[in-house]
Hints:
By secondary structure, this protein is mainly alpha-helical. The protein has one domain (3-327). The protein has 11 helices and 6 strands. It has helices at residues 3-16, 21-36, 65-76, 82-88, 104-116, 119-134, 187-203, 217-229, 239-250, 267-272, 304-327, and strands at residues 41-43, 51-52, 174-176, 184-186, 273-275, 289-294. A 4-stranded mixed β-sheet has the order 2-1-6-5. α2 crosses α6 (119-134) and α5 (104-116) runs antiparallel to α6 (119-134). Pfam families: DUF6765.
Amino acid sequence: MEIDFHHHATYLIAVLAGIAPHEAAVLAHACQLTDDNTRTCRIDHGLASTFVTTISQAADPLRCPGVSQRIFCLFHFPPGNPEAARNLRRDGQTHPLVCTPGGEAADRLLDTALASGDLYRLGLACHTFADAFAHQNFVGGTTAFNGLRPGPHGPIPRLGHEDAGAAPDDPLACWTDPRLREPVVRCAGRFLDAARGLYRRLSRHSLLSPARQEETPEACLARDLTRALGLEDPGRPDMAERMRRLEALALTPRYGWHPMPDYSPTAWFDAAVAVTGPYSPADGISAPFWNCRWRSPETRTESHWYRFQKAVSGHAVDMLAHLGPRLAGVSLPDW
């Protein structure tokens, strides 16, 4: 999924579920930043305030497949129900790490985040929960199980949904997965299922304020997202138009009357950290920052960036604990 769902739609879902707009803004920012957090950073090296960040996405998955596999499994391809996946495939194959929607790992992470009251953890968990719908029937590793065509792979390894390209993350895509008994995949249905599932989980949690008393809030959400994302629009609106429509929804009574919060992938980092050494944008989005310092060492732990990074680490630890038994005996090259 892309920013139109992970940031804009997630913000609307959270507000509809009863989360205050200013808190939903933090949650949605963390949800999208999960995809944009690709650069390792060592801050205040050699000082008591030294801090090394943790990435939650691989900027160039094919360049470092081992790192990518770990990141994908932890944040973007949560393992679900292998038997459910088996029943969908023509060949009856399955895999211990296959991603399916509503799987135990994604559900447990969301429960943990909700119980903690940590909006940064909740944003990360919402990202993983939603990706389970988009990335279903794939494994976050390099394996023949992911192949859409028989025989050896070509120049692109079968890592995640590489064989399917960007189609699984496009809400308007209709593509063919020949592995499945019903091979035609319409992403619109998967995205709406993710939105409904996320709304249900957020709205019924006891720590959140009750959702507004709508006659059918899920139906309203599905209708609004269908129109905003253009899921039934023959004109196929582009990303900018979809985001504009979602921003308009934020200004309606159902979604809190508040403008859609701004999002910049570097906003939290720039507010908390200064780069003191030479750096060129040509180094790429995955190049590490080694010459950095906290702008305010005394209050660093209160910054969005620090709290998000601590949430990334906590999310990874919890997911690894869940993956442990499933990794036994699983062969993933370069893991």
